[in-house]
Each structure stands twice: as C-alpha cells, then as structure tokens.
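Action item from last meeting closed. Structure (68 res):
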C-alpha cells in the first residue's frame, strides 16, 4: 500500500476516501479516520486534499478506498 496521498485533481464526487478531520493530528497513531463518499473537493493542502464528504464531514484525504 503506497503512502502517497491523492491530489485534489485525482478526486471526484462519489469516490470513497479515508479522511482525517482538521482538528485531529494527522501524524497521530490513534487518530480515527473517517471513510465516506466525496461530496465537494476544496483544495490541496500539506495535510492532503481538503474535501467535504456527503455525510457532512470535512477533512483531509489520506487515501482512496478501493472496492475489493
């Protein structure tokens, strides 16, 4: 599994991603990633692309969740 985060250009509405909310420490091991479908893509940031999921959660994308 690669450790590279996707860019905002790679993201589309409806893609399932794993995000970390802005108030969580991206580097922390005990963070709770949130998985959901992309609703709105905002911009690339050092923490990863910022998106709003369809469930209303705003966070930084850590990875795209690929369906098995």
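Sequence:
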């Amino acid at each position: 599994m690669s450790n590279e985060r996707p860019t905002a250009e790679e993201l589309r509405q409806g893609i399932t991603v794993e995000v970390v909310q802005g108030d969580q420490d991206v580097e922390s091991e005990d963070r709770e990633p949130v998985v959901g479908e992309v609703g709105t893509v905002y911009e690339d940031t050092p923490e990863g692309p910022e998106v709003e999921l369809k469930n209303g959660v705003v966070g930084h994308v850590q990875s795209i969740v690929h369906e098995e």
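Note appended to the action item: The two ends are 14 Å apart (CA to CA).
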